[in-house]
Amino acid sequence: MFEEYLPVLILAVVATAFAAGSLVVSSLVGPRVPNPTKLSAYECGNEPLAEIRTTRFPIRFYLVAMLFLIFDIETVFLYPWAVVFRSFGWFGLAQMGVFVAILGVAFVYEFGRGGLEWD
Amino acid sequence: MFLAQSALGVPDIAWSSFAPELVPTTAALVLLLLGVAGRRRMAVAAPVGLAAVALGVWLITIELNLPGAVAVVLGVALPALVVAFPRTPSLVQAWGAGLALAGALVLTLWQYTAVLAPVGEGPMLVQNALQGSIANDGIALFTRLTVYVTALLVIPMGYGYLRQRRIYRSEFEPLLLLATVGMAALGTANDLITIFIALEVFTLSLYILAGWARRDRRSEEAGLKYFVTSAIASAVLLYGMALVYVATGTVDLPAIGLTIGLVTTPRSVAAIGLALITVGVAFKVSLAPFHLWTPDVYQGAPTNITAFMAAATKAAGFAVILRLYLVAFPTLEALWVPVLSVLAAITMLYGAYLAIVQRDLKRILAYSSITHAGYATIGVVANSADGLSATLWYLLTYAIGTAAAFGALIALERRRQGEVTFADLRGLGREAPDLAAVLALSMLSLAGIPATAGFVGKLMVFRAGIDAGLTWLVVIGVVSSVVAAFFYLRIAGVMFLEEPTGERGRPQVSTGLSVTVSVSAVLVIYLGIQPQLFLDLASNAAALVR
């Protein structure tokens, strides 16, 4: 049965070799011109404000993340459903309606509890 | 469009197979919305109620009278509750949740009479629904009964308690309902994926509920401890499930049962999967040595949550244990019967021994629940129809006895506003004879004294063990019962034989608490003296979807 997995093994070896090879080659032949900008941490183009490890950030970000999850999951299911929408017909529409309604309850709950107010 | 034309089969949904779970799920969503609606509660209640009534009327027109009636009653009750308690939204929540659970209980019984009831003598029928992911059989019926009855007892029991501790929030009832739904779904789950999802639904809710009193460090510790350890156990369980899938190529429990004994199945992979699954489920029902979280979590969680966890989680956990071992792994019997027997033996002795040396009554009951998990396991390792019905019956009686015991503790805790020790029990028989009587009765039932529900359960479990040739295990069980009887009877003795110390006032008993505690006490006596109806049900319940 292991013969069937041989291509996977070969792919893994080739991928590892390629990644390691690229690093080795670029470190050997690449030019090195260090300057302060290159050495600073990259934060979306902004000046770094503080050390990451010691900075406390508001727990409200967590609520935003939860909100993102609600709609992310919704999208994950909506796309495949949209592709096969016709063959599911009314049944599929009703099912997706129920699903969106349940997620909607979560959203309304978070909204009602004040999860979207920053202060 | 090529994709659009390929015919995807629309699944045939047997709504009756999970009708009882639909009611509390919907109720949880509606109560969640009501909790944030503020003064606009009617704007939520009226349309939802109208929709429920419409659904009920439609169900009645297609001759589903009882489910229709449930929908109509709940649909009318929701706006009525909002009107009746304009100033106390918490009462709307509690009543709404209680009515939803009562509806679920009615639908469970309807499901039994309409779908599962045997014709004449013999085991009940079984229903295999949703492409085999749900099985309606004896395990499902008893798990639903136990879980819904427990939740129905816990809601009124904790109403006053949560308010007195100032930890009531409107999310309490929705979370409790979701936990209940998860447990009930675990009783019906018939494939590995459904099992895992149901497990997560109820443990996720319980993590939050265990840490509900977040200003209390004990409760915080309980929530965190339960979350961390239980999440690891879930991961181990999931890994075991994955290995079983690797070995058998299916997640369907009956199909696993058919494949796993074949010569072509890699036996070592299946065995490792079985071992990991055993660790995972043993953790969930707290079999020693996977019980270490139990005392701390049970002590720290608010007492009404502890009651729910101790009573209902056990039923759901053993439902999945029974189904896994009796349906999926019967051919690996030589592997799991010795392991589970040893676990049961350690659990019974260790739990009973440690319960003796505790001072806090909640910890005593926590160790008592560990001990009882050991007794229930005897019915599992018996690996027989008798063992199955014995375990199901045992879990029901244990749940009711435990609910009564924790109910009495709540009353004591409210008087003292802190942990309850033996000193609080001293002379309780004179101060509050009714409460002392209930507590003593539940202790007698947990100890397994005749004429209480616990006796019949223990007798059945031990008999099933002896019939299966596990005499040594039953001997250990009897020894453990004798040891356990010491601390159960000591609680009863302290209440009636010792003098009260100082003036402490009466224990605080709210209406909800006294009703639920009385109901559970009556059930303990009724199931002890007149068990025949439910015994027949339990012996008929030994029919599984295989």
What does this structure look like?
The complex is a heterodimer of chains A (119) and B (546). Chain A has helices at residues 6-29, 36-39, 60-83, 85-112. With 119 residues, chain A is mostly helical. Chain A has a domain at 56-119: Methane Monooxygenase Hydroxylase, Chain G, domain 1. The longest helix of chain A has 28 residues, at 85-112. Chain B is mainly α and 546 residues long. Residues 1-6 of chain B have low confidence and may be disordered. Chain A binds chain B through residues 83-89, 91-92, 102, 105, 108-109, 111-113, and chain B through 1, 3-8, 10, 29, 32-33, 35-38.
What is the CATH top level name of the domain at 56-119 in chain A?
Mainly Alpha
Order of helices and strands of chain B: HHHHHEEHHHHHHHHHHHHHHHHHH
Distance between the amino and carboxyl termini of chain B:
41 Å
Overall mean confidence score, pLDDT of chain A: 84
Please report which band the strand proportion of chain A falls in: under 5%, 5-15%, 15-25%, 25-35%, 35-45% or over 45%. under 5%
The tally of helices of chain B reads: 23
Strand order of the largest sheet of chain B: 1-2
Q: Regarding quaternary structure, how should these chains be classified? A: heterodimer
Q: For the CA atoms, what is the radius of gyration of chain B?
A: 23 Å
The low-confidence runs of chain B, each spanning 5 or more residues with pLDDT under 50, are 1-6
Provide the β-strand percentage band of chain B: under 5%
Uncertain runs of chain A with pLDDT below 50, 5 residues or more? none
Q: CATH topology of the domain at 56-119 in chain A, anyone?
A: Methane Monooxygenase Hydroxylase, Chain G, domain 1
Q: Major β-sheet of chain B, in short? A: 2 strands, antiparallel
Looking at the overall shape, the CATH architecture of the domain at 56-119 in chain A is: Up-down Bundle
CA-CA gap between termini of chain A: 60 Å
| Radius of gyration of chain A over all CA atoms, rounded | 25 Å
What is the β-strand count of chain A? Answer: 0
The amount of helix of chain A comes to 55-70%
Q: Mean pLDDT of chain B, as a whole number?
A: 89
